Amino acid sequence: MLNLVLDTLLPGDEALHAPPASSIDFATYQQRFGIEQQVADFLQGLSDLAQQHHAQRFEALDTEQRLKLVDALRRQDLRLFTSVVTHCLRAYYSSERVLRGLPSGAVPPFPEGNPMPEDDWSLLEPVYLRGPIDRPVDTPLK
Questions:
Q1: Which residues of 60-78 are buried (b: 16+ CB within 10 A; e: fewer)?
Q2: How many CB atoms lie within 10 A of CB 114?
Q3: How confident is the model over 72-98, as pLDDT tens digits?
Q4: How far is CA 4 from the centre of its chain?
Q5: How far is it, in rounded angstroms, from Cα 61 to Cα 67?
């Protein structure tokens, strides 16, 4: 069920060369960060909601129904939802396989990574000429 939930959250995109989330090693990530119980609670919550709303297992539902149940779990337990989804996103976007597929590249932009275009610093000239806009600390409020 975990892979189905991962793919429901992050299905991947062939046009962007982004694989589905089930292709990452989330089990190792869970162990590394000690979130096995949170993930188990998240999966149990989705299973319970699937039974309550559809009288079916989560795995038997279509994508739209699964997404609605994920949203229902978010409304039911925001902390659990936020924690697990944040970990899913971190695991996905730190995976070498995902980073290699993204068009931005998997290396830092500098000093020897992705090329960065030259900036046009003259765009900041009006801001510089405007001068400071903050109030001195010792000036009382009116």
A1: ebeeebbeebbebbeeeee
A2: 11
A3: 999 999 999 999 999 999 999 888 888
A4: 16
A5: 10
